[in-house]
Amino acid sequence: MEIQQNEIVVFILMLGVLIFYVGTYAQSRRFPGWKLFLISFSILTAGFFFTNIEGVFYQILHLHGLAEASNILEHSCYVVSAIVLALWSRSVFGRRSDRS
Amino acid sequence: MNTLTKAIPYMDLVSLAALLVAAWYLFFGREGIVGSRVKWMVWMIVLLLMFNSLSNSLEWLRITAVLDTMEDYSALFLPVFYFFVIFIFLQELGFAEVKHLRNYLTNVFDSMPSMLVGVDARGRVTQWNSTAAQKTGLRLEEAKGQALSEVYPLLSDQLEHLRYAVEQGKVYVEPRIPRNLDGETRFDDLTIYPLVENGVQGAVIRLDDVTERARIENVMVQTEKMMSVGGLAAGMAHEINNPIGVILLSVQNILRRVSDDLPANEAAARECGTSLDAVRAYLERRSILEFLRDIEIGGRRASEIVENMLQFSRRTESGMIPEDLARVITDTIALARSDYDLKKKYDFKNIQLETDFAEGLASVPLIRIEFEQVLLNLFKNSAQALSTAVGGAQRQPALSAAAGGAQRQPTLSAAAGGRPPKLTIRTERQEPWAVITVTDNGPGIAESVRKRVFEPFFTTKPVGEGTGLGLSVSYMIITIHHKGQLELSSVPGKGTTFTIRIPLERAAGDSAPTTEAHDG
């Protein structure tokens, strides 16, 4: 397993966007369903974090039999992020009857 | 661990399913909750994540070589789209706030009763509130960008002041600017506020209609003057009374001392070497006795006038006392006949006067001074209308009502049709009222004017010639002070009748009879 540069770049960019989100919190929180959207995004960023952890510490993790655990964490983050994003979509775009 | 690793493709499929749900809501969900641009960004995020999940699932199915490469690069766009979601949202939020603020300021601007006009340094309209639109008949869209002098010519004289205010950064104020509105002179206070902050060059012009305030101020000044003049007149009347008394007494003495009734006169004439008959013959031949009688008549008349003046200028502190209505009216007619102002414009003596006083009105409770004031106002009003009719076009269109009351319409055709000007004053007893009617055969009053004659300050006279208070004060005196009614009926071309009704008896606590007072 080797480190993929594009994954590092994506993670750094995601981190930058997260800082932007937090930095503009006073205005951004007026975004519809802001909390769910932020949670979804943060978990997605965590997924990219685990991807990079897996690449950087592969040898050590592999030695301790934890390489796959990191991979599972990454994909778990993607699943949770997607589910929260679906919930966000429902809360923002769902009709009243959908949410009752 | 291997068992868990085998679950990863299924986890990606769950992600894909969740993203499909999100896509479903995006596609079929409510519109307008976020802007369309934001929605497009969310679409891109969902599609990218779906693509990632799909490619991950296929990778674990070992058919993913091309998709794997695409996935590596496509993920780079994710943070970009996430960034733009909030960035665009914030931008739209800013626009919405600017729009809200603009609407709010426009509402504030429009809610002002003053006429507010924003102009740039060259005098072109940039803002225009609803009062301005109302006054000019031009909407903001029509006025915007136009020269101020074109959209509101009344302000064309103010362009120099506007330039001065902008250049100097000083507020310019000009009070009481007159303007003509449908033949009526109105007054505006003008204020120019320069806008020099943050590089904005221009000004806000504020125009306040202060006509009513100006009138009230004029009335106050006039009242103050009248009070001073009234006091002066009362003092003068007292002073004049003394020499008049001396004149009358002396004339009476002279007449007595040349009469043949007194033996002392005959004796004195004999002592002087003549006879009383010779003296009287001389005096009669030279009309000296006639002159003396004229002096006596004139003196009595002067004394009467002074007495009326004194009575009129007295303060109305006295309460209601029973008065002989016919006597009050007669006295007021005498006062009107001697009124210099009335004589100057339309001599009351030229009007044929007819009176018809009913019996049983010898003790009507009223405040004499105030009641006389009302009658005098009505007489003057009638005299003015009659002079208009008789004088025809040579006269001023219409003279004012009493102490500046409402003005009659300048209808010159009516009573001029050969009829002599006539004023009829009648009294009548109609339980529970004493009714006084003052009827003239003048040109009448047009309906539009008739509706407003009792309004305070209503006058169509030129500025400075009347306060427009005469009839409104009369109305107040009759309806409030006397608990009575004052009505007006008029037939254009035939004449006008003012009807006064005052209670025959004072009810307990001065309460009025149950019939409602006419509201004029």
How would you summarize the topology of this molecule?
The complex is a heterodimer of chains A (100) and B (520).
Chain A lengths: L4 H19 L1 H4 L5 H23 L1 H6 L3 H27 L2 H4 L1
Helix pairs in contact in A: 1-3, 3-5
Chain B lengths: L1 H27 L7 H25 L4 H10 L2 H35 L3 E6 L4 E4 L1 H7 L3 H4 L4 H4 L7 H10 L3 E10 L2 E12 L6 E8 L1 H47 L5 H9 L4 H10 L2 H26 L7 E3 L1 H14 L1 H6 L6 E5 L7 E3 L1 H24 L30 E9 L2 E8 L6 H4 L19 H12 L3 E7 L3 E9 L17
Parallel strand pairs in B: 7-9
Antiparallel strand pairs in B: 1-2, 1-5, 3-4, 4-5, 6-8, 9-10, 10-12, 11-12
Helix pairs in contact in B: 1-2, 2-3, 2-4, 9-12, 13-15, 15-17
Alpha carbon gyration radius of chain A: 16 Å
- Termini separation of chain B (Å)? 102 Å
Instruction: Give me the oligomer status.
Output: heterodimer
Helix content of chain A: over 70%
Give the helix/strand class of chain A.
mainly alpha
The overall average pLDDT of chain A, rounded, is: 85
Strand arrangement in the largest pleated sheet of chain B? 2-1-5-4-3
What is the H/E string of chain A? HHHHHH
Walk me through what this model shows:
The complex is a heterodimer of chains A (100) and B (520). Chain A has 100 residues and is an all-alpha fold. Chain A has one domain (5-91). Chain A has 6 helices and no strands. In chain B, the strands form 3 sheets. In chain B, strands 2-1-5-4-3 form a 5-stranded antiparallel sheet. At the A-B interface, α1, α3 and α5 of A face α1, α2 and α4 of B.
Question: Could you list some keywords that capture this structure?
Answer:
heterodimer; A: 100 residues; mainly alpha; B: 520 residues; alpha+beta; 5-stranded antiparallel sheet; 5-stranded mixed sheet; 12 strands; 53% helix; elongated; disordered C terminus
